[in-house]
Structures are given as structure tokens and as C-alpha cells.
Amino acid sequence: MPDFRLPDLGEGLTDGEIVTWLVSVGDHVSVDQPVVEVETAKAVVEVPCPFEGVVSARFGEPGEKLPVGAVLLTVGEPTAGEPAEPTTSGSGNVLIGYGTSDDTPRRRRRPRNPRESYVQNPRVLRSEHPNSTLGTPAIPAARTAPAVISPLVRQMARENGLALDQVEGTGPGGVIRRVDVERELTARTAPVGSGRRIPLRGVRGAVAEKLATSRREIPEATVWVDVDATDFLAARAALPSVSLLALLARFTVLGLRKFPELNSRVEGDEIVVLDQVHLGFAAQTDRGLMVPVVRDAQSLTTAELASAIAAHTASAREGKLAPAAMTGGTFTVNNYGVFGVDGSAAIINHPEAAILGLGRIIDRPWAVDGQLAVRKVAQLTLAFDHRVCDGGTAGGFLRFVADCVESPIIALADL
């Protein structure tokens, strides 16, 4: 009977934490059927099995961290007298990329409708230990588990001893979101003096480590400038499929063409100026701050760049963004104005050399042709690694982007 081991998930990841089992002992699995959701330092991913047969053993429980190479499942014979063998043609045995790219049809799990995708399989609630009191489903067969927006929300409730059937969901169709669980936990908070511990692991831990490394290693400096964003907003209104962040990203790419020193990194005693712009952008999700990366942004039109940013943002918020889509960035942009703040001394996304941010856009008095007028004004902020350039280069880049914001038509000729 073959053992299915936790595969190499790529991008230097060495372990993963079990979030949710998608199969139980006794279930039949087909080739490339996802069998478990695993959280890495980059994302939550579904891991497919390269074998076909019946699950005879399962190793690890939700919340347990396993190293790459640890046994996840043992798969027995699919039918009497017919041994299970790994597929050698098109199967994702190694599973970098989380599945196969072969177009040959295979039997897969029945597609679930949107509401079903939130509901945990009741079979996962059965225990595989004969002496356990959880040998039967934890909920009646006629009912389904509470609809939850992501496995991480279910895990948060479990770690805090909170029964989800006691939580009122505020999402579509009553789906329980992270804010609903946090609200219920806050309501149950004990008297002053006690608290709740949040482990620094998974995505939160990876972000914490990267930010700490940035502060230790990068001697950063910050420059900023106020800009008249009136025409910037007008351009956004004329292009409904292009977000403000996408416009800012486009101006950033143009600026890096003129000031390539900011699209670089320090390696040992050398500055490596990079040819490709792999543009990262900050995206707030239920699992915390993520930085998806649009690769080769320098070769995209404004419309293509906007489409890529929108797709990556949706995947990040749904927990479906692959780890490879959050690594390899060379420059980061951030629209922190959505949080209602004017400016920010942002931390550079190590090992990049700079990060550009846009604050909120509000009405302010502004001199126009010698006359005082009310205009839409915002602040642009650039934090940069002082090892790769001086203030003249950083200021020149920021002034160029500011000019694009104030006269956006010059940056949109490719539409």
C-alpha cells in the first residue's frame, strides 16, 4: 500500500500545517483528487494525491505542522486484488503547483456549489480511533455544519473553544466570517487582566519575519509629496475597469523605466539592478496583509495590469493564491488611503529596495494658476533603501510619479 507524503510545495517551503482534511479513512480517492488543505507560510492550498484507491490510514490532525516528506495518507487497493499504483503519465506526484497540467480527463471530485464550498464535510468530524467518543458524526446526518467563509475561520473558532452553531454569520446567506468569530470572542472576553494568544505562524508569521528582517538590514529613508489628484480621480471615473491602485501601479512602472536603481536589491557587496519589474501590491484579507506579485509588469498595458491586480486580489481574499504568486517581487505599491490615513512610513518589503504608497484623497485648498481653489489632494510617500540610491534619485522618481498623478493622460496612451 503506497504512502502519500507531504510534497515539496516549492519556493523554499519546508513544512505545512494541516487546516482541514477533505477525506476520511475508508473513502475512495482518485488520481489528483485534493485530500487535505495545508497552510504554508505563503497561502492555504489544497494538496492532491497521486494515487487511486481507498484511504486506509490518515496522519496528522488539524493544527498540526508536518515537515515536507512526512506521510499524510496510506492508500490501499482500489478493488480486491488490484494494487494501487502511482500514475506516471501527467500525475502531479511531486505536486509543485498543486496538481497536474495534463489535459487528459480524469475522475475528480464533484464540483460544489458556492454555498457547499463553505461547508466542511461531516465525515471529517469522525474519529479514526476505536476508543474515541467521537466515533460518530458530530452533527446529525440531516444537517450540515455552519457555513464558514474559510477553513482558517473554523480553525480560529476551534482553537478558542467556540461552537460555530452559536455564532451569527453576517456574510451572504448567513456565512460566518472572521469578523463574526472575533465579535463573539470579544463578547466572551474575561475580566481585565486576561487575554488571548495569537500564534505567529503561517502567513502572519512569515510577514512578521520579513518585516523584522527589513528593519534589521535595510537603512531606509522616506520622502513624500502632496499631489493634486483631481484629474487622477477623473481618469479613474473614465476607466471603470481600472482601479486607483492599478493606475498608481502603471505610473510606478513608467517611473522605474526612468529610475531603474529603485528596481534592485542588495546582494552581499553588490547592487543588482533588475531588468524585469515584478510588481507587488498590498492586499488586505481575512488572513492578514498579503503582497501578491504581478510578474513582468513592464510588459503589460494599463488594462492588462489592472486585470492582473484584480485577479490576484480576488484569489488572495479567497485563500486561493498560490505561494509562487507571492514571491519574487522587485518593487511594491500600496494604497493605504483605503484605511482613511493621509500618509505612512511604510516598511520596505525585503529584499526589495523601495515601496511607494498613496494616502487618502480629500478636498483641500490648492493654488491653481495663482488662485486658491478646492482640489482633490493626496500624499505620495516613498521609502527607499539608501544603499541603492541617494535622495536625488528617490526624489526624481517620486516627482515623476506625482506628475503622472496630476496629469494622468500622459501615462495612458497604451489603452
From TrEMBL:
Organism domain of life: Bacteria
Cofactor: (R)-lipoate
Extent of the signal sequence: none
Disordered: annotated span: 78-138
Lipoyl-binding domain mapped to chain residues: 1-76
Residue ranges of domain Peripheral subunit-binding (PSBD) in the record: 148-185
Molecular function terms from GO: acetyltransferase activity; lipoic acid binding
Coiled coil: none
The entry's keywords: Acyltransferase, Lipoyl, Pyruvate, Transferase
Gene3D superfamilies, per the entry: 2.40.50.100, Chloramphenicol acetyltransferase-like domain, E3-binding domain
GO cellular component: cytoplasm
EC number assigned by the record: 2.3.1.-
Family of the protein in this entry: Belongs to the 2-oxoacid dehydrogenase family.
Protein name: Dihydrolipoamide acetyltransferase component of pyruvate dehydrogenase complex
